[in-house]
Amino acid sequence: MFDKFNDECGVFGVYNHPEAANITYLGLYSLQHRGQESAGIVSSNEGKLRSHKGMGLVADIFHKKDLARLPGKSAIGHVRYSTAGESHIKNAQPFVVEYSLGEIAIAHNGNIVNAQILRDELEAYGSIFQSSMDTEVIVHLMATSNDSKLIRRLTSALMRVKGAYSLVLLSNKKLIAVRDPNGFRPLVLGRIKDAGRDGKDSWVVASETCAFEIIDAEYVRDVEPGEVIIIDEYGLKSIKPFAEAKYTPCVFEFIYFARPDSRIFNANVYTVRKRLGAELYRDHPVEADVVLPVPDSGTPAAMGYAEASGIPFEMGMVRNHYVGRTFIEPQAEIRHFGVKIKLNPIRDIVAGKRVVVVDDSIVRGTTSQKIIKMLRNAGASEIHMRISSPPTISPCYYGIDTPNKEELIAANHDLADINDYITSDTLGYLSIEGVYRAVAESGASFCDACFTGNYVLARPKPPQLALFG
Amino acid sequence: MFDKFNDECGVFGVYNHPEAANITYLGLYSLQHRGQESAGIVSSNEGKLRSHKGMGLVADIFHKKDLARLPGKSAIGHVRYSTAGESHIKNAQPFVVEYSLGEIAIAHNGNIVNAQILRDELEAYGSIFQSSMDTEVIVHLMATSNDSKLIRRLTSALMRVKGAYSLVLLSNKKLIAVRDPNGFRPLVLGRIKDAGRDGKDSWVVASETCAFEIIDAEYVRDVEPGEVIIIDEYGLKSIKPFAEAKYTPCVFEFIYFARPDSRIFNANVYTVRKRLGAELYRDHPVEADVVLPVPDSGTPAAMGYAEASGIPFEMGMVRNHYVGRTFIEPQAEIRHFGVKIKLNPIRDIVAGKRVVVVDDSIVRGTTSQKIIKMLRNAGASEIHMRISSPPTISPCYYGIDTPNKEELIAANHDLADINDYITSDTLGYLSIEGVYRAVAESGASFCDACFTGNYVLARPKPPQLALFG
Amino acid sequence: MFDKFNDECGVFGVYNHPEAANITYLGLYSLQHRGQESAGIVSSNEGKLRSHKGMGLVADIFHKKDLARLPGKSAIGHVRYSTAGESHIKNAQPFVVEYSLGEIAIAHNGNIVNAQILRDELEAYGSIFQSSMDTEVIVHLMATSNDSKLIRRLTSALMRVKGAYSLVLLSNKKLIAVRDPNGFRPLVLGRIKDAGRDGKDSWVVASETCAFEIIDAEYVRDVEPGEVIIIDEYGLKSIKPFAEAKYTPCVFEFIYFARPDSRIFNANVYTVRKRLGAELYRDHPVEADVVLPVPDSGTPAAMGYAEASGIPFEMGMVRNHYVGRTFIEPQAEIRHFGVKIKLNPIRDIVAGKRVVVVDDSIVRGTTSQKIIKMLRNAGASEIHMRISSPPTISPCYYGIDTPNKEELIAANHDLADINDYITSDTLGYLSIEGVYRAVAESGASFCDACFTGNYVLARPKPPQLALFG
Amino acid sequence: MFDKFNDECGVFGVYNHPEAANITYLGLYSLQHRGQESAGIVSSNEGKLRSHKGMGLVADIFHKKDLARLPGKSAIGHVRYSTAGESHIKNAQPFVVEYSLGEIAIAHNGNIVNAQILRDELEAYGSIFQSSMDTEVIVHLMATSNDSKLIRRLTSALMRVKGAYSLVLLSNKKLIAVRDPNGFRPLVLGRIKDAGRDGKDSWVVASETCAFEIIDAEYVRDVEPGEVIIIDEYGLKSIKPFAEAKYTPCVFEFIYFARPDSRIFNANVYTVRKRLGAELYRDHPVEADVVLPVPDSGTPAAMGYAEASGIPFEMGMVRNHYVGRTFIEPQAEIRHFGVKIKLNPIRDIVAGKRVVVVDDSIVRGTTSQKIIKMLRNAGASEIHMRISSPPTISPCYYGIDTPNKEELIAANHDLADINDYITSDTLGYLSIEGVYRAVAESGASFCDACFTGNYVLARPKPPQLALFG
User: B78: which of A150, A365, B359, C371 lies 20 to 30 Å off by Cα?
Assistant: First the structure.
């Protein structure tokens, strides 16, 4: 409904907890913002994996009886976003298969850039594919290896894979967490002390720390780029089998995707977002009467902008959270209707005022245009749009669902054009330098390809000749 | 899930709109915060009323085909809250009946204090009741009158009724809006100019002005206390058939129920809430590092408190809006679990800080206690609870679902006890004088029975003797 | 899907059974053939009635938890058929109301011919109607009486009512069964000995005896025409408060509606149907190779025809019972598709044969036409249609859903025309005398208005003048 | 609910029909008796396969919009039965995968006896399995071949497979039908002349001819044992690539599984069943008053028994077809409840009579026992049980879901014991010679392993040593 990039997944895993499926349910519920299309949980019990998956929200997919059918002390889970066309239960994760070493389940956040090449090659050697997910490639690579050890199969499979992956795997005996060498997507490790009241701790992994809070787990550390963590009855073991690479986590996680209460990449998201707002003021100051966020994602940056500028901050647009599953668009000619389903300005705050509106990003510009019209109808005398990130000019290949370049307004138009299109009085984007000042605390170098077009990993083209002519 | 009073209803009506049912759908969607248990729409077409009702959220109850089955240019709608025990489709409104003058539909926000007495009497004279709603009484009083005019039947019925009622009625020819002489519940009148592109305006009535924004209707004025507005092919007519009474709208609408972007009782809700926060600081200042709201309802008051005090305002707790229909409580021993489903503190904001937490009210105290524990676990060094309303000591008889007096913590405990129970360092409630300073702009006298026990209208006791001995 | 008359209801009641709701569920399940649109159960427990109703089949409406919410030792239930237009949950029965004597639930099989007049009058005196069911009239008549005793209210209400009614009522203390003075619809009384293992019997009433078999109840006797049976803690009491009338049960119950294993009106349905078939042969003999029923309802008559004629009986058409809820009509041009969803001929039985096809009735003729074409395609050399009832020429006013006279093929066409239309080689309907020979065992005089137009009770016309001018 | 063997599947395919998915829907609907657990359809359109599958009945799984999403002129479909434990959407067929030659969909009726060995081997070489279906093995064998032609891959895959398979496959270009060399399961070929009104015919394949009748297709011939039929734009091609084997179709298809109106194995099922009944009388004559079938499957044999014996045939038990999805077992102590949900005797037919009850088979004996008790309660003076097949003593490995040998009453008890257990006065099973006389028309040799233990194909034991030591 909003004009945003969409995240593609959240992953979760727990080892040695008497209520592993329940804990995973809670973890996924906290990660729901990372994907609302489908969700699934797989548990391991007495040498057998069991799974339950469905389309929709975690709290609607899992009922008591479903969780009761997922016994065992280890489990992994997944929430998924995808575009409508590919939305299908067969693409829901975790992906569970049987292969020569037994059963394995895998949950993946990220995107594999050489998936099609690997898929063509695997098919040429006899593999069959049942989904359109690139994740399936990883499992086939593991299956076609002839190593007798699961971990060696996994690492040699991943050595062939290029791209972004924060993975959680579950076998009958082990919980495994892997983060790609560049560490594109977040992945954190936590612990629940004495989870079963038997003196033994429980280990948890999750996309974000917000999944730890709801289950009273303590954050231990990030899973490191290129790290494979293996948890089994002998405890936790860490290996780093891959060639070292530059640590380039996704900066957009700070700007929009992650939950404000999470710590990712060594910094708190909310605090970073406020700093982005403060930097935005430094880049693009303006005289105005009031600063409004586009809620909920623009709120921290707007607060940062207001604090830096001294202009009063107001929650001047109210968001309706009761959207339900199937909102019906009315036929009536109602101006700029789309955004009204979710947002409504407060006339008393806006009327006659010079307004700064802070949002985190502009993708196509359509929502911004509607918001500005709505605020003008509510009586705003001036509207200054401020965006707490640089113009988005390039699609993401590392796990974010972005539109084609043609649809990205900033890829094809300059600032003046965009300002005209969205009808703001002035428009200011945060500079890339401003972003880096705001995230400096993290210490990473970051992937910023969506702003710069500088891709850390090239996307290989499939070969022109048939593979086996 | 939160420890709040619950509103019982929102009403909506539209006359002379080519898409009356669609418009009502949007109106109800905007009033969803006033009731999430059931909803219904009735339209009038060619002398016949048609209705669709269901349990749940507006956006889940109505699908395209349902709205298509509600033709006609007038419609009314209703959203309802009720306690679980009485939750039943047969109590969903609008209530539609056939009686001697034809069909009539009624939607009611409020509560009738002499309903049981009237019901006993009506049954004694032969009426049958199919629901447990007091609204049914009004229709029976209309039906048992022998006046030949609908409006006279309605007004003579209402003369026998004591209590709170903002009503919207629909007959084959008329849309009628009524507000009780005390004007307990809000009810506003609006207009959509040239709605059908035929030069004719459309009239709308709604519980709050936020329902006008989504349909591009302009706010005309409040329906006045004791006013009956009749809209039909001859235009809009207003009568005031009842004895005049003191105008005592519900002050709690400002404190908690109404949506911040609404104007009710001649004032904007958000602005009043910020003032309540400022008054709260005047009543209960404290030295602290940060002011946090309990989101979403406590946010404006916290902003007002922060502005008045100069203490920085932070969105230090994140609310999860993906709750779904059937969240499962885990068995795991997770501390203060209940509130974690919806709220999580941001450690980086809270740790080591002296925190002021602003909420709009405390009902039982259970949620406050959990929030405070959660904040202490996140490292808060001091926690000062500030409530932007006086202690709630008495139940409401005018349309709000309040617990029994025994469950209202402030009805049975003094401030020190409550502070002990919720484990805050200090606790401060806004004084009733502070409330009145904050709502002065409205100019009304207000019902404050929940804070003072001063009931505007007594609740009559059913007679001891049988009615017809 | 088939071109048949549709029954409108089945009723059931049980008194003093530890599992009253479960027993009612089973009873309704056995009466499902009498109505598949909606069903409901009301139980009485500790002075309070509880109900559950839904649209669809009994086995789909009631789940364990629903039955568990219907505690108590007495219950009544209802299954309903109705035409699509009026299909609505608010018309589902039992109908439950509160009135001056407390709560009452009513379940009705039949039709009241003076309902509209009574309804107009009741509305004129202040009653409101919430459904389009004539049953609601009975309850209003009871409510507007000023007698202090339930039974006297009921009998005086029924004295004003003309029409067909087999009723089961439930109050907090009593189970009441009533059959109209003409006894149009069946109603039987049964007993479960020592149902609760406490030495006390349980009483049951039902539309047909087939509902007794599934619950191991013994058939005691028919509820007599004009009889009111009251069952309460003092036992079973019978009164006959109405003026005596001719006993004219519906002969069509024998021909089509009732289940073959039921005993109604003192005869077994299957046996009567076989005799109808034998009489049909006497009326319309033919030389042929094989007798086929239109299954399932035509089977016994076809067997009777075959036995009487000596022509071999074959189940030469197979019926598909897996129809599901929402069969989709294909677009493809498939000849005489409609009936193929349910019926398919066996070529090996039909090819080259002179076939007698026995059905119980013809309403519009469309199904017969399709069946005959289907049989010709399967190679039948001659097709002789035989109908085990006379031509249906008049609609029913006593509880059967019949089409308008214009749609009844036999009301507007003679035998030759119908034979032409359905394309049979010969066509023979059973004579009314043949019907009476077949049902002679019952001893009743029977209503045969659908065949003769002789209505036992006239359908009063609403007065031309307003009731109270 | 009944004590029967369960069939495992029905398959259907259509090539070159403008409404391929609709036609498949109708075909599956006619084959519903072969499997009620899940169903699916895959269509081929512009080089892309699309599928829709679900749990439950065909008419409930497919709605208009689902069929509209299956465009194209070719389609295949499948209905499946399976035991509760393995019931899962991931086992629903057709099975659709992508492999090196593109996409392929497969629908399978039968059972592969060396599936586990092949699976172990395939996994050892890198295949992963996502279901527990043996059908998946066939696709993996095709994928791991390195032949460039689909048909050669299929035939070489099937050369490695032992067991029963009637297969329908769909690629982007071809519809393929295969029947195993022994021809265990039926598979028939049909044609719809000028299906698209463009002069071109449409080809159809189905498990039984009853699927042809509903779509007005003509039966052409059986797919022969060991035959592979390939249908594509160049027309229909037939090859027989496998070593010839004895033609041993499943005799139980005639006894119970197939629909009476179908022709399978060159004979009509209804006619064969009547002959089985006549042979049964020859084997086990008895003096009695009436012959009753256990409906619906026992009806033709009972008619054959009645005709041969001259004892009158009566439909003396009524079957309730309104079972719905979730019938609730009552707690009440109701004698022999289970079978009453579906069957009820007609007292007037049974009371005082010497009854012959004809059923097609006895599996565990529990249903027979309940039926006999029910008939005795209805007054039968003698009950002679006659079974139109020999005692079932061995499980089926060729596609029928049979219980373990321990549960087969006849595997462990002699005739006298069974007669005692089910409490019949006398009990007679048809001899194997009687069966062969009845099916002689077919000309095949038949698999009768369930009666004799003579398995046509041995079930290989997995090797004791690991495959690649």
Answer: B359
Distance CA A271, CA B339 (A): 23
What Cα–Cα distance (Å) separates residue D362 from each residue in B160, D293, D365, D451, D452? Answer: 74, 14, 6, 12, 15
Check which CATH number belongs to the domain holding B297 and give it.
3.40.50.2020
* Structural domains of chain A, count: 2
Cβ neighbours of C324 in D, within 8 Å: 57-60
Question: Are D133 and D63 within one domain?
Answer: yes
Percentage of chain B lying above the pLDDT 70 cut: 93
**Of D124, D125, D143, which is closest to A128 when you measure between CB atoms?**
D143
Considering only A271-280, B173-182, D339-348, which range has the smallest mean pLDDT? D339-348
Q: What pLDDT is attached to residue A100?
A: 93
Residue C191's SS3 state is: strand
Q: Considering only CA atoms, which of B131, B147, B146, B149 is closest in space to residue B94?
A: B131
Q: How far is A165 from chain B (nearest CA, A)?
A: 25
Same domain, D285 and D238: no
User: How near does any CA of chain A get to the CA of D11, in Å?
Assistant: 21
Range of the domain at D303: 268-444
Q: Are A261 and A210 in contact (CB under 8 A)?
A: yes
**Domain end: D245, D260, D278, which one?**
D245
Q: Which residues of C touch B118 (CB under 8 A)?
A: none
In a domain, D451, yes or no: no
Looking at the fold, whether D276 and D368 belong to one and the same domain comes out as yes
Predicted TM-score (pTM) of the model is 0.89
Task: Answer yes or no: do B302 and B382 share one domain.
Answer: yes
C96 contacts on B by Cβ (under 8 Å): 130
Q: What mean pLDDT comes out for the span A421-448?
A: 97
pLDDT of residue A133: 85
D156 touches chain A (CB under 8 A): no
Nearest to C447 by CA among C72, C182, C116: C182
Cross-chain residue pair C130–B97, CB shorter than 8 Å: yes
> What average pLDDT is seen over chain B?
92
Q: CB–CB of A59 and B326 under 8 A? A: yes
Q: Which residues of D touch A143 (CB under 8 A)?
A: 123, 126-128
ipTM of the complex: 0.92
Residues C312 and C229 in one domain: no
Locate the chain C residue with the closest alpha carbon to D267. C348
According to DSSP, the β-strands at B382-387 and B354-359 are parallel
> Do the chains contact at B261 and A22, CB–CB below 8 Å?
no
Chain D contact for A130 (CB, 8 A cutoff):
yes
Let me know if residue C155 belongs to a domain: yes
pLDDT in tens, D233-243: 999 999 999 99
Q: Residue C419 falls within a domain, yes or no?
A: yes
Q: Which of left, alpha, beta for C265 (phi over 0: left; psi -120 to 50: alpha)?
A: left
Nearest chain B residue to C138, by CA: B128
Tell me, yes or no, whether B232 lies in a domain: yes
Helix (H, G, I), strand (E, B) or coil at D53: strand
Structure tokens at B316: 């230090």
Q: Cα dihedral angle (C267, C273, C276, C281), rounded to 10 degrees?
A: -140
Cβ-defined contact of B59 to A328 (cutoff 8 Å): yes
C81 and C174 belong to one structural domain: yes
Selecting from C96, C125, C128 the residue whose C-beta is nearest the C-beta of B140 gives C128
What DSSP designation does D224 have? P
Task: Count CB-CB contacts under 10 A for residue A302.
Answer: 29
pLDDT for A51-100, tens place per residue? 999 888 898 889 888 899 999 999 999 999 864 434 577 788 999 999 99
Q: What is the DSSP letter of A32?
A: G
Same domain, D354 and D303: yes
Assess whether B229 and B272 both reside in one domain: no
pLDDT at residue C466, as a whole number: 40
> A128 vs D96: CB contact, 8 Å cut-off?
no
